[in-house]
């Protein structure tokens, strides 16, 4: 049932192009417009939404952090993202014009369920993004957009995460489409490029051997840091989470701009630091800033592992290891940038002899608060 792979996690990483394609299937019309018929919240209600709040846990929370960038950019609706376990205890401000998006692979995370119940009690509309048909979270929501990753068996989430990102992009683009924004042309173009992402993910998977080799060489590292900016920041958090849960190693993700506010003190000779580099096209200011960050940490002895777009030559002199990812629209980059980090964590954990499908102390669905 592992389809020839040693672990479910490897199988699920490999299934990502298909999972992404399946999640897009039937949702992009022949005219290039999105049709999200299953989202049973009428367009008239969606036009009135004045705030979006995303609640989720763990990896699903990281998908939510990325969604915030897409939603605010394409819809201009303010969006907050919060770990579900914190949400209801701070008496959040919610009303009928708030759209709460609950993201959950299993549909059974108790923290997320309790948060969504609280949101509905306050009159907010709840849209679930979920991978498990008929599970509790979609049943208790006003609407659901299913991710079509197929069953995810490995405890560490991989393909479900990529499909959560796709679902979040679809929601953001759909809201942009329904409400009309100045980004109309960009939205049309991104929808077209979204359809191309399964091939891009496949291309990343085809070039992972050097990443595996690097991961094996780092099996004795004490700690690994991950840096990113913009949507690369949540990708860094996700890379660190994967390494913690699978390799039982200290790993931490930071916004690269925060380095100088403290974490740079952690940099010492030989410390591996993974840097997710934003595209040099588009918001290129960010690109230049991260190149400076890479120089700063390297000057202090860090061993830099740089994940950068094809054709980005500016990073080459400062990269001890360079991982190339395909060019994508800026906001879609997490779909390709996350994959090498998953492979890295999986391989490093395997090199340490860990059981990657069943990491210690963890359960696939967390049904206690
Ligand atoms: C990490 C992981 C967990 C889950 C979290 C939420 O690899 O799998 O962090 O993402 O427990 O689970 P769901 O999405 O089922 O609510």
UniProtKB/TrEMBL annotation:
Biological process per Gene Ontology, one example term: carbohydrate metabolic process
> What does the UniProt entry say about where the protein is found?
Cytoplasm
Segments forming domain SIS: 41-181, 214-359
Q: Which top EC class applies here?
A: transferase
* Annotated catalysed reactions: D-fructose 6-phosphate + L-glutamine = D-glucosamine 6-phosphate + L-glutamate
Specify the domain of life of the species encoding this protein: Bacteria
Function noted in UniProt: Catalyzes the first step in hexosamine metabolism, converting fructose-6P into glucosamine-6P using glutamine as a nitrogen source.
Question: What is the name listed in the Swiss-Prot or TrEMBL entry for this protein?
Answer: Glutamine--fructose-6-phosphate aminotransferase [isomerizing]
Question: Which gene name belongs to this protein?
Answer: glmS
Residue window of the full protein shown: 253 to 621 of 621
């Amino acid at each position: 049932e592992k389809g020839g792979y040693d672990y479910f996690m490897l199988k699920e990483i490999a299934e990502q192009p298909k999972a992404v394609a399946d999640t897009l299937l039937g949702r992009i019309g022949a005219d290039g417009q999105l049709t999200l018929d299953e989202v049973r919240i009428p367009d008239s209600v969606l036009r009135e939404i004045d705030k979006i709040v995303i609640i989720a846990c763990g990896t699903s929370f990281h998908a939510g952090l990325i969604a915030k960038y897409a939603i605010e950019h394409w819809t201009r609706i303010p969006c907050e993202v919060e770990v579900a376990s914190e949400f209801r205890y701070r008496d959040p401000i919610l009303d009928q014009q708030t759209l709460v998006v609950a993201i959950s692979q299993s549909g059974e995370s108790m923290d997320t369920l309790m948060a969504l119940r609280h949101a509905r009690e306050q009159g907010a509309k709840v849209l679930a993004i979920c991978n498990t048909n008929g599970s509790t979270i979609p049943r208790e929501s006003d609407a659901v957009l299913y991710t079509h990753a197929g069953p995810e068996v490995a405890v560490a989430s991989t393909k479900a995460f990529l499909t959560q990102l796709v679902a979040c992009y679809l929601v953001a683009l759909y809201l942009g489409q329904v409400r009309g924004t100045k980004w109309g042309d960009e939205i049309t173009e991104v929808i077209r490029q979204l359809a191309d992402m399964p091939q891009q993910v496949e291309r990343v998977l085809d070039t992972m051997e050097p990443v595996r080799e690097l991961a094996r060489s780092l099996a004795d590292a004490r700690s690994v840091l991950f840096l990113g900016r913009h949507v690369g920041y949540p990708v860094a958090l996700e890379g660190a989470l994967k390494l913690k849960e699978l390799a039982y190693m200290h790993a931490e993700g930071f916004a690269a701009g925060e380095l100088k506010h403290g974490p740079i003190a952690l940099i010492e000779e030989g410390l591996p630091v993974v840097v997710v580099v934003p595209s040099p096209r588009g918001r290129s200011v960010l690109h230049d800033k991260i190149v400076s960050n890479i120089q700063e940490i390297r000057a202090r002895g860090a061993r830099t592992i740089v994940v950068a777009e094809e054709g980005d030559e500016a990073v080459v002199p400062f990269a001890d290891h360079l991982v190339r990812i395909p060019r994508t629209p800026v906001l879609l980059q997490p779909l390709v940038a996350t994959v090498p980090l998953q492979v890295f964590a999986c391989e490093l954990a395997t090199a340490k002899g860990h059981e990657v499908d069943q990491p210690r102390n963890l359960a696939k669905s967390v049904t206690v608060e």
